[in-house]
Design brief:
By secondary structure, chain A is an all-beta fold. Chain A is built from no helices and 11 strands. Chain A is globular, with a radius of gyration of 14 Å. Classes of the chains: A mainly beta, B mainly beta. Chains A and B meet through β4, β5 and β9 of A and β5 of B.
Chain lengths: ~110, ~110
């Protein structure tokens, strides 16, 4: 089955800096990669996703990049703000198999004012 | 349009007690899922239902049972609660097995003493 590794587990940045969270996956059949943001005490919510036929996708201050050859994808947040503080989860979905998302263990992002 | 509704939000059980966590979605999604979230472990799949009438085990099914009552509802039952089942439980749904449009419920915080 799929295995997703996520790094770092904790990331602390100053307001205005950029933050990068990286995930690697093991199954080359995975073809859909969503990212979720979970604020303290709340449910995970989808913030951006990318399909395997696309190398990069942007939505305002967030972007996701995908390297299929190396089997890794990354979340980039620019001009971080305190409200970006949350736990971020990546996931990989094996399109040709179970279709069940496999989640990374999460990254706790702390943005200091 | 409520999305995914979970009940209860909080529950304390004594070891050996049983209970059922309820989940309902109003988005006409075919697939529904139950996850547990523990510190540092991310989201681990307990059971899922790819479509009405089917259920399958996930990564950590031991100690749990599920029922896909109809297309809207997917319940999780703990027959004999154990302290190791203390966790936050999330229900989720998606339109299809591919995981797109994954929507989480607000979670149930369960403590087993």
């Amino acid at each position: 089955g799929e295995n997703v590794e996520q790094h770092p587990s904790t990331l602390s940045v100053q307001e205005g800096d950029s933050a990068v969270i990286k995930c690697t996956y093991s199954d080359s059949a995975s073809n859909y990669f969503p990212w979720y943001k979970q604020e303290l005490g709340k449910r995970p919510q989808l913030i951006i996703d990318i399909r395997s036929n696309v190398g990069e996708k942007k939505d305002q201050r967030i972007a996701v990049t995908l390297n299929k050859t190396a089997k890794h994808f990354s979340l980039h947040i620019t001009e971080t703000q305190p409200e970006d503080s949350a736990v971020y989860f990546c996931a990989a979905i094996e399109g040709g198999g179970s279709y069940i998302p496999t989640f990374g263990r999460g990254t706790s992002l702390i943005v200091h004012p | 349009n409520a999305g995914v509704t979970q009940t209860p939000k909080f529950q304390v059980l004594k070891t050996g007690q049983s209970m059922t966590l309820q989940c309902a979605q109003d988005m006409n999604h075919n697939s529904m899922y139950w996850y547990r979230q523990d510190p540092g472990m991310g989201l681990r799949l307990i059971y899922y239902s790819a479509s009405e009438g089917t259920t399958d085990k996930g990564e950590v099914p031991n100690g749990y049972n599920v029922s896909r009552l109809n297309k809207r509802e997917f319940s999780l039952r703990l027959e004999s609660a154990a302290p190791s089942q203390t966790s936050v439980y999330f229900c989720a749904s998606s339109e299809n097995r591919g995981g797109e449009g994954y929507t989480f419920g607000s979670g149930t915080r369960l403590t087993v003493v």
